[in-house]
Amino acid sequence: MPTNPAKDPNEYFIDAENAAEMARLLYQDHLTTQGMGGTIPERTDFSTIHGVLDIGCGPGGWVHDVAYEHPKIQITGIDISRTMVEYAHTHAFVQGLNNAHFRVMDATKPLDFPDGSFDIVNTRFIFSFMLPTTWPALMDECVRITRPGGIIRLTESEWYLTNSLGHETLHGMMALALKKAGKGYSPDGRNVGITPMLGQFLQQAKCQHIQHMAHMLDYSAGTEAWSTFYQNTMAFFQLVKPFILSMKVTTDEEFESLYNLMLAEIQLDSFRGISFVLTMWGERPAS
């Protein structure tokens, strides 16, 4: 049992209305899509795709990219944060993306869409506001709103693996804090543990023809992605600091020392950092 369960299933460990978090998510969206080789890199034929839903869309980075790449597809993003949704809507309007739509909606509650509304239902990095107990209900909703033969697509990551002592120590503290809050899937809290669960989520939802695609993203010194990784990491650990401290896995003094060490190590020419991203998808049964 978690030692300090989240008070609310939709509780995110960062303030969902925080402007700095919105900027960080835009960095993350760009990094991930570029590193994966596209928005939906496993698919080449979109002739039968007319409607797509992105659950937990944040400021809409993935939705905007899909809408730009496929102007004939209607794509909707939902998020619990009104700030994120308003930004996403404004960006789409300014860019003339008339096929991109956004709504404020809580993914841990029944989704306000008719049965069979979408050809693809997508999630990307949503474990942070989900609990093990809320995934089954969300998957049931995904099945309900996906047309028969449509695709349910899940993407998650175990975050980063680096040669920075500061980063690895802070990463371990974050994983342990998630475990203590009832959000982790690792049995011992040494990592996030979400990626091994994706196949089970799809199997329990009775999806068919389950497939997967894995990606390795390189953020090492000298790579094109390094600068964005540095900005993302610098913001992320400051944003999650209150959560880590609230779980009592470190002290303020130790955190600051490790944070400064991490930033110094990431700026070394010898810095190496990668992440593994896993996408799994399956078809909704015909009946």
List the helices and strands and how they pair.
Elements: H1 19-36, E1 51-55, H2 61-69, E2 74-79, H3 82-94, E3 100-104, E4 118-124, H4 135-145, E5 146-162, H5 165-180, H6 198-204, E6 208-218, H7 226-246, H8 252-266, E7 273-283
Parallel strand pairs: 1-2, 1-4, 2-3, 4-5
Antiparallel strand pairs: 5-7, 6-7
Jot down its keywords:
287 residues, 38% helix, single chain, seven-stranded mixed β-sheet, Rossmann fold
Q: Given the C-alpha coordinates, what overall shape results? A: globular
Q: Tell me the helix content.
A: 25-40%
Q: Helices and strands: which structural class? A: alpha/beta
- Helix segment tally: 8
Protein described:
- This protein is an alpha/beta fold.
- It has a single domain (19-283), classed as Rossmann fold (3-Layer(aba) Sandwich).
- The protein contains 8 helices and 7 strands, in the order αβαβαββαβααβααβ.
- Strands 3-2-1-4-5-7-6 form a 7-stranded mixed beta sheet, sandwiched between helices.
- Helix 5 crosses helix 7, helix 5 packs across helix 8 and helix 7 (226-246) packs antiparallel against helix 8.
- It is globular, with a radius of gyration of 19 Å.
